[in-house]
Amino acid sequence: MGEVILDVNELTTKYVTRFGDNIYAVDHVSLQVEEGKSLGIAGESGCGKSTLALSLMGYYFPPLHYTSGDIIINGRTITGMAPDDVRRTVLGNDIAYIPQAAMNALNPTQKVIRFIEDVFDAHKMHMSKKEVRETAEGFFQAVGLPEEVLNKYPVELSGGMKQRTVIAISVILSPQVLIADEPSSALDVTSQKMVIKMLRRLMDGGYIKSMIFITHELPLLYNVTDDIMVMYAGQIVEKGSSKEVVLTPLHPYSQGLMGSIMVPEAGLRDVKLLAIPGVPPNLKNPPSGCRFADRCKYVMPICRAQTIPLREVAGGRAYRCVLSPEELSEAHAREVYASHAK
Amino acid sequence: MKGYRLYFGKKVIWFFVTLAVAFVLNFTLPRLMPGDPVAAIVSRMAQGMSNTSGVQAIYEQYTELFGTNKSIPEQFVLYVRNALRGDFGYSISQYPRTVADVLRSSIFWTLGLQLPAILVGWILGNALGALAAYRRGNFDRVLLPVSLFFSSLPAFGMAVILLVFFAVSLRWFPTSGGYGFDLIPNLSLTFIWSVIVHYQLPFWSLVIITIGGQAIGMRSMSIYELNADYVKYSRFMGIKDNKIVRYVFRNAMLPQITGLALALGTMVGGALVAEVIFSYPGLGSTILTAVLGQDYPLISATTLIITIMVLTANFGVELLYGFLDPRIKAAQAD
Amino acid sequence: MKHMLRQVFRSGKFVTGFVIFMAIMLTVIIYPLLITDHPLSIIGQGTFFPPGIYVNVFDSVSSPAYTIMLDDAAAKRIAGRLNDEDREAIREWLVGAGVADGEIDIANTESLLGLWVNNYDSTANVAGMTNADRNYYIRLNKSLQVLLSTEGVTLAASNPETGALEETGTVEPTQYVNVREVANVRLLPLGTDNFGRDVLTELVSATAVSLRIGFVAGIIATFIGLVLGLVSGYMGGIVDDVISFITNLFIVIPGFVLLILISFSIGQERRGPFVIAVVIGLTSWVWTARAVRAQVISLRNRDHVNLSKLSGHSIVHIISRDILPYIASYVVMALILQISAGILAEAQLSVLGLGPRTTEEATLGLMMNWALIYQAHILGKWWAYFPVILVIALIAFSLNLMNTGMDQVFNPALRD
Ligand SMILES: Nc1ncnc2c1ncn2[C@@H]1O[C@H](COP(=O)(O)OP(=O)(O)OP(=O)(O)O)[C@@H](O)[C@H]1O
Ligand SMILES: [Mg+2]
After folding, report:
1. Sheet holding A22-34, edge to edge
2. CB distance B296–C264 less than 8 Å?
3. Which chain B residues touch A87 with a CB distance below 8 Å?
4. B189-203 confidence digits (pLDDT tens)
5. From the CA of A99, which ligand is nearest?
6. Does a structural domain hold residue A311?
7. In a domain, A332, yes or no
8. Are the CB atoms for C181 and C66 separated by under 8 Å?
C-alpha cells in the first residue's frame, strides 16, 4: 500500500445556471488515489465526469460552485483555501489537468514557449527565460517532441503534436496528481490508448506521482488503470480494482456499460447486447431513490422509496444497489446467457 | 519574416488587381447604361448653363476626354491615362473650375473627418464590447440593445439628431460647414478654432454609429473566445485572470481588424451622407452638388477617388493585420 | 423545422424584434384601409403646420355655442399669448419702476399680470428707456387690455346688396363649441410637410414603399448570393476560384459608391422605386455569397452528403435535400440583414438626391430629402424628419434584433 496522495471526501459541487437552477453534477463523491497508482473514471456522456475532474482542482469559477466536502492532497486540505493561493500553489504543482481536446487547448496566437514562461511566472517560480527553456526542453524530450516545437505557434503543429505539447505542459511543474479528461466526442480509441501509455511512462519516469483517467468507454480501462470508478448522474455507483469492475461488474449500470464486450465470440462481437435503454435523469431535480431505477432491469418498488447508500464490500470494493453482490452476479449471468441463446 | 513578405506580396498584387477593376467599373458602368451618355450629358448641360462659351468649351473638352469617336479600348487607355495624371476634365456645375481642383480640397476634409472618426469609433466600440463580454450582468444587458439601436440608426439620422440638439437647440456648435463662413482658410488661431468647433458634431455622429456596430461584434467575439478551450486550460494551469483576459482580447480583436477592413466601404458610404447633413465641405457634399448640377465628370471622378481611398485604407488594415496575427506568417511559411 | 421555429420564438430578442416589425407591417397594411386619402395630396396651404387638431374656424362660429364659466380662462388665454420675451420686458419695466426684483416671478402669469395692472403707467418715466421702448410698452399694454376685457367680439358680414358690414352676432369670451359638433375637424398627428401634405399619411405610405424596396432588394441580393455561394462552394475548382475572386473584389470595392455611380448614370427619368430596388439588390449580394460558400464547404464532405452522392442523386437533389436545409437558417438571417440594408441604402441615396424620382409615391429617403432641402431640421420642424428617422431606425433595429436572436439560437457559442 502506497501513500495516499489524493483523498476526496464527500465532495459536492453544483452548476448554477443563468436561470438560477442548481445542477448537482458531482454529488457526495469520495475517492482516494495512492502514489504510483492510476484511477479510471467511466460513465456515459453527461454523467458528470468532466465536472468531477474540474471540481477536484479546488479552483471554482461560475457557473461551477463548491458546495461541501474536502479535497486533501498530500495531507493539505485545499478546499477552503483562498482562490489565489489555490491558483498559485495547487494548480499545476499539486494537481494538473489535461483537456484531451488538445486541438484548442493552446492559445492560437502565442508561441508555445511564451505560454510555458507564463505558467512559470504565474507560480512565482523565479526562473530566467533560459532556465525555463531548459526545463521545457527536458519535458518535451520526455514526451518525444523536438525542441523546435517550443518556438512554434499551435497552428504549426499537427494534432498529435499538439496533444503531446499539452501533456508536456501539464506535467511541467511535476504535479502529484494528473487528471486526463477524454471527452466522449473523441471517438478514436487507439489514440486514447496511446495517451494512457504515455502518461504511464511519465509516471514511471517520476514526472507525476499518480493519475486519473476519464473516459466513457469502461472496457477501455481494463488492464490500463489500477482502479476504476463508475459514475452515474453525478454519483459513484461502483468502484473497485480494474479487474473486478470490468470482469464482474456489480451495479446494473456497470453491467450495461460492459455489455458490448461480454460476448467475445466471433459474429456477435459488436452487438450491444445489453445496451442500456433510456436516458439519464435530469440533474436539475434527480429522482429521490435510486437514480438508475428508471432504466434498470431489476427495478423493485423499494428502489424508488429510499436513497441507496454506497455499500462497501471486501477489498475496497463498493457499489450502490439494494441487491446483494451474489444476486447481482447471478442476474447478470442469466442475462448474458439469455442473449447468447437468441 | 519570410512569411510576412509573402503575405505582403500577395496583398500588393491584390491591391493592384482591385484597383484595376475599380478603374474598369468606373469606366464601363456609365457606358453600359441605355442611351448615349455623351448626348445625354450634353443635353443636360444645355439646360443647366447660361454661359454658351462655357458649354462649348466643356463640350469640346468632353468629347476629347471621352473620345467617343474612338474605339472602346482606345477610350479606356485615354481615360486611365488622364485619370492617372489627375486630369478629370472640367466640372460642369462649377465651370471653369476643373474637377481636380474641386476634389483637391474636399478630399482633405473627408479624410480628416472619416479616418479619425472610424478609428476612434472602432477603438471605443471594441473596448465597450470587450468590457460587456467580460463583466456580463447588467452592463451587458443594457449595452447590447443600446448598441444595436445605435448601429441601426442611419448615419445621417444620427447626424440630424445631434445637429438639432446641440446646434439648433443648445447652440453649442454651428449647424453647418467646415469652418466659419466668414473666414478664409489660413493658419490663424481663429480659423483653427473654428475648424475644431465645426468638426465636433460630424465627428461624434460618425463615432457613435461606429461604436454601436463594433461593440456588438467585439462582444460576440470576446464571448466566443472566453468560452474557448484554451481559456479553461490556462486557468487550470494557474495563469492569472488578467493575463488570460489579455490573451482573450488580443484574439478577439484580430477578427475585428479584418472586420474593419471589410466594413470600411459601408462605413464610408454612410459617412458621406452624414457629411451632407452638416454641409461639411468633403466628398459627400461634392457628390450632392454634382448630382444637383448634373455634373457627370465630377460624379465619376468622385466615385473613383472614394473607391481608391477605401481600397488603400483596406490595404493598410490588411498589412497591419498580417503584422499582428502570427498565424498569417505561420500559414504563409509552409 | 417546427422545432427550430419554436426555439427561435423562445428568444426574447427575436420576439421583441418580431413584434416591432409586425407592428410596423400591420400599420402599413391597416392604416390605408381606414384613411383612404391619397398620401401625397396637398392639403395645407403653406409649409410645416405643427402637429395637432385643426378645428375649422368658420364652422365653429356657426356651431351651437355653450357658455361655460371658468375662473382661469382669462389667465390661460393670456398665458397662451404672452411669450417669454414679453414677460422679460414686463419684468424689466417693473424693476425700472421700482418693484423689487424678488417679488417678480415671470413664470407665474397671474401674479405678473397683477403687478403690471397695478403699476403700469404709460406716462411714467422709467430710467434708460428709449422712445421705441415706450411705444412697445404701450402696444403691449393695449393688447393685454383686449385680452383681459370681458367684452365679446362682434361678428359682421357684408351685405351683398349694399356692400355694407352688418352685425350678425357676437362671440363672448365665455362661449365654447363642442368639437364634435363642428362639421370640419382634422387631426394632423404629425402636422404637414413642406408641401402641405399630411405627414402621418405620407409616412405610412412611404414606409410601405421603402419596405417594398427593402424586400425586392433583399430577395434579389439573397438569391444571387445564394446561387453563387452554392455553386462555388459545392462545385469547387475553377468555378469556385472565379466566383470567389469576383466576390472578394466586390467586398472591397464599396457597393454604395457603385450604387451612386449607377443611379446617376441611369438618369432621373428612369429612376423609379423598383429600379432603385433592383440596383440595390444587384450591388449587395457579396456578403451572402461569401457566407453561403463557407457554409457549403463545411457541409460538402459530411457523411450524409457523401451518402447522397454515392446513391447517385443529381446535383439538384443533393443541393436541395442535403445542403439547403442545413443552411436555411443562415440564408434567412442574411435575407433579414439585406432587407434592412436595402432600406438604408435607398434612404442614403435619396438624401444625396439620387433616390427614386416619383410624384406618385414617397419613400422614407425622399421624405428625409425633402425635409432637409426645406431645412426642417434648422427651423425646428421636428415632425417632418424625426418620425422618418425613427421609422428607419425601428425597422433596422427590429430586423437586427431578430437576426441577433436567431444568431444566438443557431450559434450556441454566443449564448449568454
Ligand atoms: N456550464 C454548465 N452549466 C450548467 N450545467 C452544466 C454545465 N456544464 C455541464 N453541465 C451539466 O452537468 C452535467 C455533467 O456534465 P459533464 O460535462 O461533467 O459530463 P461528462 O460526464 O463529462 O460528459 P462527456 O462524456 O460528454 O464529456 C450534465 O448534465 C451537463 O448538462
Ligand atoms: Mg466530459
Report:
1. A22-34, A4-16, A64-73, A76-77
2. yes
3. 238, 240
4. 888 888 888 888 899
5. 2
6. yes
7. yes
8. no
Contacts of A96 in chain B (CB under 8 A): 236-237
8 A C-beta contact, residue C9 and residue C15: yes
Q: Judge whether B213 and C344 are in contact, CB under 8 Å.
A: no
Note the pLDDT tens digit of each residue in B203-238.
999 999 889 888 988 988 888 888 888 998 999 999
Query: What's the pLDDT at A16?
Result: 87
Find out whether the beta carbon of A231 lies less than 6 Å from any atom of ligand 1.
no
> Quick check: is A211 in a domain?
no
* Closest-approach residue (CA) in chain B for C377: B164
Contact A108 B247 (CB under 8 A): no
Q: What is the per-residue pLDDT for C125?
A: 74
Out of 3.40.50.300, 1.10.287.1700, 3.30.1360.180, 1.10.3720.10, which CATH number does the structure's domain B107-281 have? 1.10.3720.10
Q: What is the pLDDT of residue B52?
A: 65
Q: Is the CB of A184 under 6 A from ligand 1?
A: yes
In sequence order, the 6+-apart residues with CB closer than 8 A to the CB of C380 are: B164, B168, B169
Q: Which residues of A170-199 are buried (b: 16+ CB within 10 A; e: fewer)?
A: bbbbebbbbbbbbeeebeeeeebeebbebb
Query: What share of chain B in percent tops pLDDT 90?
Result: 10
- Whether A94 is in a domain gets the answer no
State if residue A179 touches ligand 1 by the CB under 6 angstroms criterion. no
Query: Are residues C372 and B277, on separate chains, in Cβ contact within 8 Å?
Result: yes
Give me the mean pLDDT over the C326-342 stretch. 89
Structural domain boundaries in chain C: 2-42+195-414, 65-177
Half-sphere exposure of C80 (CA within 13 A, CB side): 8
pLDDT of residue A13: 92
* Best mutation target, B266, B280, B289, B317, to test chain C (most C CBs within 10 A): B266
Residue B117: its H or E element: helix B99-135
Task: Tell me if A30 sits within 8 A of A10, measured CB to CB.
Answer: yes
pLDDT for C180-232, tens place per residue? 889 899 989 999 998 889 999 999 999 999 999 999 999 999 999 999 999 99
Average pLDDT over residues A106-114: 90
In CATH terms, the fold of domain C2-42+195-414 is MetI-like fold (1.10.3720)
Residues A322, A316 contacting (CB under 8 angstroms): no
State the residue range of the domain holding A326.
Answer: 246-341
Position A266 pLDDT exceeds 70: no
* Distance between Cα A47 and ligand 1 center (Å): 7
**Non-local CB neighbours of C161 within 8 Å, separated by 6+ positions:** none
Complex ipTM? 0.86
Give dist(CA C141, CA B316) in Å, integer: 71
Cα–Cα distance for residue pair C128/C134, rounded to 1 Å: 10
| Structural contact between residues A327 and A334, judged by C-beta atoms closer than 8 angstroms | no
Which chain B residues are Cβ-neighbours of C340 within 8 angstroms? 152
Q: What angle do CA B309, B14, B315 make, to 5 degrees?
A: 40
Q: Which residue of C has its CA nearest to B220?
A: C414
pLDDT at position A261 over 60 = no
Distance between B214 CA and the closest CA of chain A, angstroms: 22
A185 pLDDT more than 60:
no
Please name the chains neighbouring A, where neighbouring means 3+ C-beta pairs under 8 angstroms. B
pLDDT tens readout for residues C68-90? 888 878 777 777 777 777 888 88
Domain boundaries, given as residue ranges, for chain B: 107-281
Alpha-helical segments (H) within B227-240: 229-236
Do residues B219 and B144 make contact, with C-beta atoms less than 8 angstroms apart? yes
The closest residue, in CA terms, to atom 20 on ligand 1 is A46
Task: Name the pairing type of β-strands C175-176 and A4-16.
Answer: unpaired
CB contact under 8 A, C266 and B33: yes
Query: Closest Cα to atom 17, ligand 1: which residue?
Result: A50
- Tell me chain A's radius of gyration from C-alpha atoms: 21
